[in-house]
Amino acid sequence: MKRENKAYSYKEQIIELELQAELNKKKGIKEELQLSSKQKEMIQAQQDREASIRKRLQLLDSDLQSAVGLLEAALIEKPSEITMELPAVLQVLLPLLPSPLAAPRLLRPECDLDPAWEQEDLETAANRTILLLHHHTVPQRDNKTAVVAPLSAPAFSVCFPLLNAVVKKSSGSSEDEESQLIRALQVISEHCQLRSAADSDDMTIDENGPELLPRTSMLMLLIRVISTATPRLQDGCTVAEQQEIDVLLEGLLSPCFSVRDAALRGLCEMEFALPTESSEESGLSLLRRLWVTRFDVEEECRALLWESLGLELVPDLCSLLIVDVTHHEEAVRSAAAEALSSAVSTYRDQAPAVLGLLTQLYHEKLYRPPPVLDALGRVISEAPPDQWEARGGIALALNKLSQFLEEAQVTPLFLFFVPDALNDRHPEVRRCMLDAALSALNTHGKDNVSCLLPVFEEFLKNAPQDASYDSVRQSVVILMGSLAKHLDKNDPKVQESVAGCLPPLVPAIREDAAGIVRNLLQLLLESDKYAERKGAAYGLAGLVKGLGILALKQQDIMSTLTDGIQDKKNFRRREGM
């Protein structure tokens, strides 16, 4: 629009623009908006975002169709097998229902429904369904002629999400809501009593078996009802007592992740009833269990309750965690080792006591009573099983604790490793103990060379030449090799130590001995560097000691050395001799 003047008034210009727009509309001409470069950039960026979203949704839809296709194929070919996994399948499918991409039907649909689904009010339909379930599955005192029977476990698994939603949604504040909740809970209670037939075998699937029920979800729902419902609805329920809490705390020690997860969520639901005072035995027990859970091997279990309760670590917990380190379940041992390490990192003054308790407990778990015999030497009762898992847990804890040890504790720890712990009768424990020793050596070796080297040398010098000590010798050789990197390279003690390590290793490398001897002789006679020639001499001596005196002749060592010492032209060869 032009600036107003005597020739063009605003009113005339507006009329002209309106007239032109009307003529363009009649002719079908669309007026293009003139955009600035910044506006064009914004439009392009928005189009790129929309294209990216469409592409991601297409990929999700493709994955969804593939998964649904596999599930449909399994249902067609092996419908009976799906019953075994129905609770797990539903647990995956139900969270997808709120998605417009995945949900064909839902309590609160995110997609278009067939009009027939909307002929009845949602709340009325839910009430009617619960009433029908109750009528056909829960025996009634006043109706003894009706045929009433519980659903099969798979059928109940399909119905349970509706019961779960109704119970969670309703507060039970009105009489109608309370009646509906009671009916829903009675349906659940009736199906909790499903049992397999006594004559069922392992080859057939008994659809009344409780293993087919969604037990975890049922337990979580019932705990929620106990914790949140009105006293009248709970029908005699009360605040959870210590015995009930202990049952769930014991569930945190299960090897099964789903059980640990359900137990932890159950504790969350009764949060107000938990004893959190660490000065009491029950509070300290809760503190210990939840602290270990913070380091669970499954991240989903971690820190779910510790923060919400506002719990704090206490020094007394360090010694209590040692019991969990020796637990028979691997998941508990692993979490307890991490938990103990973290606790000691906070309370460093507890490290000496914890180390002493761990080494003492190792010797207790190492002892295995002999079988009980009668007067004639016959076995009355066998020896108890070896507690190697507990000793493996101690090794894992020592591995984690090594970084928090004080200098005064390093030598006693290695006197424990050599020869006892590294010679454990179980190979897995030996491996874990070697890992723990290497971890301690890498952390403290540089500052404790003068203390640790005599420990290793004394063992190699005085240990019996017996096959039962071979595993310790091999471990000590590895430890000495790791310790050698902290020694001064110009110190003769380094080469002497390495040479002393070689004889125990020779049996394992006997087939390659000839090649190693040739390489060492070449270095000894030809190298330009004095340090290399000296190192080759130490290495050759250690190798010959391990191979035996006959190796001097078998490997042509003496003849080669004789030729070298007679070489008048090359002083290096004579010096090498």
TrEMBL record:
<dbReference type="GO" id="GO:0006417">
    <property type="term" value="P:regulation of translation"/>
</dbReference>
<dbReference type="InterPro" id="IPR011989">
    <property type="entry name" value="ARM-like"/>
</dbReference>
<keyword id="KW-0677">Repeat</keyword>
<dbReference type="GO" id="GO:0005829">
    <property type="term" value="C:cytosol"/>
</dbReference>
<protein>
    <recommendedName>
        <fullName>TOG domain-containing protein</fullName>
    </recommendedName>
</protein>
<dbReference type="InterPro" id="IPR016024">
    <property type="entry name" value="ARM-type_fold"/>
</dbReference>
<dbReference type="GO" id="GO:0034198">
    <property type="term" value="P:cellular response to amino acid starvation"/>
</dbReference>
<dbReference type="GO" id="GO:0019887">
    <property type="term" value="F:protein kinase regulator activity"/>
</dbReference>
